Here is the input.
Amino acid sequence: MTKFYTFKSVALALLIAIGFCAQAGKAKAAELETITVAGGCFWCVEADFERVNGVKEAVSGFMGGTVANPTYKQVVKGGTGHFEAVAITFDPSVVTRDTLYAMFFRSVDPTDAGGQFCDRGEAYRTAIFTSSPAQAEAAAKAKSDAQNALGAYVVTPILNASEFYPAEEYHQDYYKGTKLVVTRFGPKRQASAYKAYRNACGRDARVKELWGDAAPFAGS
Here is the structure.
């Protein structure tokens, strides 16, 4: 009988320990935060922010429109109201939302209301989508700081977050893909096609021109 109770006590202790571990895992997961930004081509925004220490994931998609489950072709054609957007999930104990918003403004041309770099049209406009008062406050401060730093009017709106629709699978991690694709530069692996596109579009050159050494991603 003593052995039975000893076994029962050990089993109970193990179950309690497993429960604590599970709760700790949930608490840790709950600490992650997601911000959503639009900065022109989502391939580029995703590629930039996935390199930031503390960012766990960046997903290319669409936000801000009126059509449910839009396709990439629908969005870039225009008329859906969506922006090409990126949902950035990060660990606030490693990198703050303030830092990420500041980096975002310094990775785009926030004075351009017609698109970004070579990509023109409503889908390529800049924006920050916020899902809490804390995000809205941080985004407003980052916008004000960017405007003061540039000495020019920043057109990037701060909007309430709406439904985020992930883009088609082939858009995710496009910048490091190995699939062979046909481009205006000839047949290339996705990673090479991405680099050729980014260079030809003039993204880094314009960001460097605007922000100089404060640009976190340009030319690196």
